[in-house]
Every structure is written in C-alpha cells, then in structure tokens.
Amino acid sequence: MATVKFTAMKDGDRQDYEFLTAHEIDYAARTGERLLDALVQLDEGLSGYKITRLGHSCRRRLVPGATAPTPTGSPARCCTTSATSTLPTITTSTPLRS
Q1: Pair 76, 66: CB distance under 8 Å
Q2: The pTM is what?
Q3: Rg over CA atoms, the chain
C-alpha cells in the first residue's frame, strides 16, 4: 500500500491506520535529524550578510532585553534575564555538524 484508501479519516480501517502508524514512527524517529538540517540551512543561507540567519535568530533570542515586533506592531520582550544570569556564547562560524 503506497497511500491510505480513505479521504476522510472516519472512513479509515485498521489496515490504513497500521500503515500510517508505521510511517509516523519513522517520521518521529527522524525529528532530530530534520531539526539539525533546518539549523544547518539557516547557517548556510543567504550570502553577503555579516551574520547568518541562524546567528541572527540566536542573537535575537539571547540578547538581554531584546525586543521583537509582534503582529500588532508593538515590541515584545524576547527574553528576560536577571542581573546574575549568564548567557551562553553561540558561534555560528563553525558548522553545526560535519
């Protein structure tokens, strides 16, 4: 079976859902790999900028008091830090994975 037989989920039978379960288990098992691939793509994206999209994304989330626009246009705090907290250093100049 290459696809399920139904178009409406209520019409699926045991064989359809066993088929889907096998695909979903495989898909879920590769979640980490898909996330790493997405991060690598952000780090290797558009050229010409001084910072990659990954670097920009990480910086916007880690800079204390940084703000990002919301759908309403008003700024929202990206993170909050206390005076004693320390932020991790993120370098995007090295590949996330080899």
Answers
A1: no
A2: 0.49
A3: 21
